């Protein structure tokens, strides 16, 4: 084998090795980029879901505060055929879609407790039932957002266990 052939073979091996190295590096880069893109897409979807969930849960809380004192307001009695709580009813579908099962169940129970409060007897037991359902919904919503429910704090409307003296 003469020196020219050796040089050509060595050069050919160098070119093939370089091309193989470039192809391998590009392939690994594509795999990393695909993985990074999938992770980013999952993060965006989770952020969007979290935003929808937060918006929906806040809307449920607003509906509770909108209707909790309605039986005490002056005026003629409410008529169930007026469908005053239709917005809240439609909101339950969003809670079913974006919320956890526990939050969806609590929101549904809250809706029916408020419905009984508005169109039923309006007794103190019904008001307390609505408050209890609201507290259950708040606990479920807090859990969904990773916030541990504070078991020592009174629920909304409950008297505080502290007497104010330190």
Write a structural description.
It is a single chain. It is rod-shaped, with a radius of gyration of 31 Å. The chain has one domain (3-144). Helix 1 packs antiparallel against helix 2, helix 2 packs antiparallel against helix 3 (101-119) and helix 3 (101-119) packs antiparallel against helix 4 (124-144). By secondary structure, it is an all-alpha fold. Mean pLDDT is 84; it is low at 162-166. The protein is 71% helix and 0% strand. It has helices spanning 3-67, 86-98, 101-119, 124-144. It has 4 helices and no strands.
SSE topology sketch:
Blueprint: H1 3-67, H2 86-98, H3 101-119, H4 124-144
Helix pairs in contact: 1-2, 2-3, 3-4
Short account of what is shown:
The protein is 71% helix and 0% strand. It is built from four helices and no strands. Helix 1 (3-67) packs antiparallel against helix 2 and helix 2 packs antiparallel against helix 3 (101-119).
What's the N-to-C terminus distance? 99 Å
- How would a textbook summarize the main sheet? none
Number of helices: 4
- Global Rg: 31 Å
User: Could you spell the SSE succession in H and E letters?
Assistant: HHHH
Percentage of residues assigned to helices: over 70%
How many separate domains make up the residues? 1
Question: What fraction of the residues are assigned to beta strands by DSSP?
Answer: under 5%
**CA-based shape:** rod-shaped
How many strand elements? 0
Overall average residue pLDDT: 84
Low-pLDDT windows of residues: 162-166
Structural class: mainly alpha
């Amino acid at each position: 084998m003469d020196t020219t052939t050796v040089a050509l073979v060595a050069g050919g091996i160098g070119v093939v090795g370089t091309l193989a190295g470039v192809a391998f590096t590009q392939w690994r880069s594509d795999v990393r980029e695909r993985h990074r893109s999938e992770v980013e897409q999952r993060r965006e979807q989770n952020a969007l879901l979290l935003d929808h969930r937060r918006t929906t849960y806040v809307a449920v809380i607003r509906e509770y505060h909108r209707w909790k004192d309605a039986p005490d307001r002056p005026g003629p009695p409410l008529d169930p055929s007026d469908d005053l709580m239709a917005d809240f009813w439609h909101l339950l579908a969003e809670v079913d879609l974006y919320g956890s099962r526990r939050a969806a169940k609590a929101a549904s129970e809250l809706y029916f407790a408020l419905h009984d409060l508005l169109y039923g007897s309006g007794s103190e037991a019904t008001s307390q039932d609505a408050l209890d359902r609201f507290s259950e919904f708040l606990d479920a919503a807090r859990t969904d957002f990773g916030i541990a429910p504070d078991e020592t704090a009174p629920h909304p409307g409950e008297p505080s266990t502290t007497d104010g003296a330190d």
